[in-house]
Amino acid sequence: MTAVALAPVRRRGASRIRSVARLYFTNPMTIAVTPFIVLATIFLLNIAVWGIIVVAAPGDPDAADGFSYSGASAWIFFYMAVVAIQAMNNTFRLALGFGATRRDFYLGSTLVFLLMSVIFTAAITILGLLENATNGWGLGGHIFTPVYFGSGWAVRIPVILCLFLFFTFTGSAFGAVFVRWGRNGLLIFGGILLTIVVLIGLVIALLDAGAQFGAWLGANAPFGLALWSLVPSAVFWIAGFLILRGATPKN
Amino acid sequence: MNPITEARAIFLQIAEQIENDILSGAHPEETQVPSTNEFAAFHRINPATAAKGVNLLVDRGILYKKRGIGMFVAEGARARIMATRREDFREQYVLPCWRKPTSSASARPRSPT
Amino acid sequence: MTDDTIVQAAGLTRRFGDVLAVDDASFELQADRIYGLLGRNGAGKTTLMHLLTGQDFPSAGALEVFGHAPAENAHVLQQLCFIKESQRYPDDFRVKHVLRSAPWFFENWDADFAEQLVDDFQLPLNRRIKKVSRGQLSAVGVIVGLASRAPLTFFDEPYLGLDAVARQTFYDRLLADYAEHPRTVVLSTHLIDEVADLLEHVLVIDRGRIILDEGADELRESATTLVGARATVDAFVGARDVLHRDGIGGLTSVTVTGLTAPERREATASGIELAPVSLQQLVVHLTRSSEKEFA
Lengths: 251, 113, 295
Hints:
Chain B: This is GntR family transcriptional regulator. The complex is a heterotrimer of chains A (251), B (113) and C (295). Chain B is mainly alpha-helical and 113 residues long.
């Protein structure tokens, strides 16, 4: 027989993790193109709405003030959370089908989420700089520099980055729960999280510390809060990993 | 038509098929026969099974291996095949028939009467 | 265990609640053979392959693939390729994206071979994977499974929706490529007659239990159906193990195992007709008789 021995296969961890990461960019549409379309849509809709307001109520100072409180850019964070959830579901099954371990899959996905967080933080920063330079697109608007992100780039950049990390890692954890325990698991997981939040609220109320907590929030927002968000982000990241390690792709 | 339809092990059928082709002159002596992989592909069978059939004929001296080239029909293969088949035929059919009239019970020990 | 053993399972069990999907399975797989994993739907074929490929975790028992427990072992899993009927792909994938990303995971990937197979199956590369037909989806799996040339490849019902011509193309390409690049292939199927001649070894699983683990050639000779007058056949069968019995009027047909050559001659001489038992019939008989055991 003209037998040709198959090459022994032994790839290093870094290369395996990179393969998983590349899987997300095989069709760059979902992860690299659509988010920008989301951003562009948010942008155009805002400009259109503001244009209408400016035309309808010229010179109204309340309107101009309202433009600083645009929550439009929140959509991009939600979008990234959805990408993370989908990744855990569909990309996970394919990666396992291609012989990846859960660990390599999770690390590769994390790499992608970190990368995307950095890229979109940079994108929002550039758009924010443009916004400032054009006096809010000629309308005094703040789509990419709303007050929630704080003032000054030294604060905004880490705040935006922390927000992206929080949403993607929360998404990973929810996605992992869905893959492992299905829809019911998701409900229970959501219920547990809600209970924790309510309990914290109760403790604050019982300690009669509502005013203090409010003051603490006010004093730390947004930079300190952003840094604090790294704690739940890390918890979600670790939880996502532990949950996914025991997950099996069901039919 | 695919000849692989009988209950006997496929490798035996492959060996027999090659023998038939040697008898019919399709594979003259001292010429190369197809490789086991070609046999496998043609008959749509597992290559290991085809190899088993070919090796059976090597053991019987019907085929021989030329290193690095392939399988060849041995000199005198036809005569050897015919001799073996005559012997088998006698074993299977002639002897039982020949014995039958003298001792029918020994040939059909369990058959009811 | 020999040097060629690449899979070794001992008492392998997978429990889902009260159900034993894989029940105390012990077997070995040797390198460079084509195995048939046969059994009815729901017999445990897919669960067993999920265990072997580390996609699921055993409830009990020992399992080694290439010398290690497969679950979460990157060095083991890199040697495997598992093509399953229910494989899911990312929502935004087109056919070409599957074939573009597969080589990043399979060291032995043969791009030319993959391209030739795309032609063979007339696969629309640009179509969204969610929009392709069942048969085309199966073809995607078949192409990945063949072109990846993984040392241990599993095909789980890989042909759903493929017509007879396309299935034959799959079997032909598999045989030709296996001959060139020997590797271990496990074909899980219930179209047994179609693949019977491709198999070197057969495992039959029924209700999670391995009820047969035998070379295909031995199996082919192992069972025979005897057809003839009831009295004659019954007398010949005697106390033998009967796999299957059927009858109409005074005629009866009985399937038995382990007839020797002299016994076959004896049967013929007494006027019994001998008919071969196909692998499919054999599996049907075996799974039926194991059912009786349980009943």
